[in-house]
Amino acid sequence: MASSGKPKRSSGLARGLASHVAGRLKKSVQPGDHLVLGLSGGIDSMVLLDVLARLSSRARFNLRALHVDHQLSPNSAAWARFCRRACRSRGVPCRVLKVDVPRANSVERAAREARYAAFAQMRAQYIVLAHNADDQAETVLLQLLRGAGVKGLAAMPFMRTPNASTTARQPAIIRPLLDVPRVDIERYARRRKLEWIEDESNVDARYTRNWARRELLPRIAERLPAYRSVLTRAARNMGEASALLDELARIDAAKASDPRGLCVEALRALSPARAKNLLRFLIDSYGWRMPDASRLTEALRQALHARADSNLAVSLGSCELRRHRGFVHLVAARTHSAADRLRVIWRGQREIALPDAGGVLEMARARGAGMSALRLESQPVTIRRRQGGERLQADAKRPRRSVKNLLQEAGVPTWQRERLPFIYCGDDLVCIPGVAVDWRFLARRGERGIVPSWRETDT
């Protein structure tokens, strides 16, 4: 843990850092809004905690802090205690949330994704993060070295609003220090005699960002002292270009979109660059990780040239590109281990959220339609996932038929068949939502009925 030494002479921005942050927040934050500060305990977030705690009563917003404990360091418990004490001394409520970070190829990325998933759970108008101008410059440079496109080179926006596709309200992310150099943050911390923690992983040059920060950028600064402002300006320019590409994608989406998906013929009419731009826009709008350019190009090629009766599936990492009956769909990549074990008892709820299956089962009340409410009272009603080989008799005058044939005739795409929940009464298959009800369980005229419908939430 480090603390201030003797106060040094502060720059104008450091002296007016609180006013600077207040001005940045004033454009978006309204009195009564709830703000959650992402508090790591490092110098940047401690400075922002100090500033926001001073501003909260004057600007009349509600401030809380969230410390995400990644459990990657032997010091993580001490860091959590430090953050609690720092918040308590300022009268700011602090929550510590432990997350499990998979030991994947990139621990940095896995930790970041776990952290942002935690932020998305917060009930607030804004998550406030302490990224600064140096962070922005590092991000632009690293994205360039990774071969990122325009959106990647736009780096971090001052504000990121929730994706339009999210079903639950998520807070926007705001970065009021994004145009503040780290040197001014350090001067403010010394002037205010703040304490902060030092994460030992920040000096580990095995992490690319640390290598860039400690070795590459100091060398660049020797020749180009103004590199921070130059790279930040480049990010703003790329941000404007990205916004224009998004506008173009919305125009193309309006022409190519259909309730059944993206029309293959409409995609063929676009230039390859515009078609890929449209797919990137849709992937980003769902918050999925962007695939590399070669994989996206190959997915588009297969989608445009597959046979008309092909049920194409191409993995794009966190999502999949699917083609069905002349239409292209982007769906969340899914492992079926959790959904395979799906077995939920229905106790009369009108809505049953089934996140492992990727949707919500709605059970609407009706008269003389759907499943007989009386018949369903004979045994426990459970919601299960398809296992294969099921059969159902939708008409008393016709034989039982395989569920596979019923789904094919109904035009249910392959990936939706994999997720569709089935409704059982005891051991009897009663209903495939939106497809068929077994005739023995049909509601008679005037009888109380239950009409189930399945709504996917992650596609």
Number of domains: 3
What is the approximate shape? globular
- How far is it from the N-terminal to the C-terminal residue, by CA? 45 Å
- Share in helix: 40-55%
How large is the share of residues in beta strands? Answer: 15-25%
Calculate Rg over CA atoms.
27 Å
Q: Class of the largest domain, according to the CATH hierarchy?
A: Alpha Beta
Biggest sheet details: 6 strands, mixed
Number of helices: 17
CATH topology name of the largest domain:
Rossmann fold
The low-confidence runs, each spanning 5 or more residues with pLDDT under 50, are 1-11
Mean pLDDT: 87
Structural class by sheet pairing and helices:
alpha+beta
Overall strand count: 24
User: What is the CATH architecture term of the largest domain?
Assistant: 3-Layer(aba) Sandwich
The spatial strand order of the largest sheet comes to: 4-3-2-5-7-6
**What is the H level of CATH, i.e. the homologous superfamily of the largest domain?**
HUPs
